[in-house]
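Same chain as my last thread, 233 residues:
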Amino acid sequence: MLASAFILGFLGSFHCVGMCGPIAFMLPLDRNNQVKKFLQILSYHTGRFISYATIGAIFGMLGTGFYLSGYQQQLSIFVGVLMILTVITPQHLLQKVRITQPIYKLISKLKSALGKQFKKRSFSSLFTIGLLNGLLPCGLVYMAVFGALALGNPIESGLYMVLFGMGTLPLMSVAAYLGNFLNVTTRKRIQKLVPVFIAIIGVFFILRGLGLGIPYVSPSNMNLMVKEAPTCH
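reply #2:
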């Protein structure tokens, strides 16, 4: 399941270039010093990864509650179904569900803080931009969070989100170096693959929850449920 996070991030990075690409295009980099520019981009990605890892760990702790209650399998199936429903539901219906509306003011503050950091060229400002970028609402990140939640372990969930971030690293780095290098037509063609792969990941989560005894794909019930402590003699 952890490998799926990297692949989701890699394929989803084509979507990221369209949505978060402007942030990467406008990073306040020192473009006259290649070594410094590389380190600045590294600082930016480090900030993103820390945000993703933190989000993953938080949702992993929530998932731990389901694990301890013996509901991790049901949660895995629910997450898989939710992923599939998200990609097959018409976009105009999803837009009516304003998940971010209650925290609109918080998002505005994040964007405001992000804007201030673009006026600087320090490593700390690049790190902060990445940190704030990772906290901005993104449908693709939500899909990764669903996966992290289903793992039910703060460490694994945090790692899942980091691997997701690492999947986005190649294309987002190229975007930072070269700017808007993909035309609209190419991005649209590649973005069509993203929902397909999200649905495939959803199927894997459903199989995982069913506990069919298939190694690495659908482990048995006892591997997913909390086992009783052995009786002492």
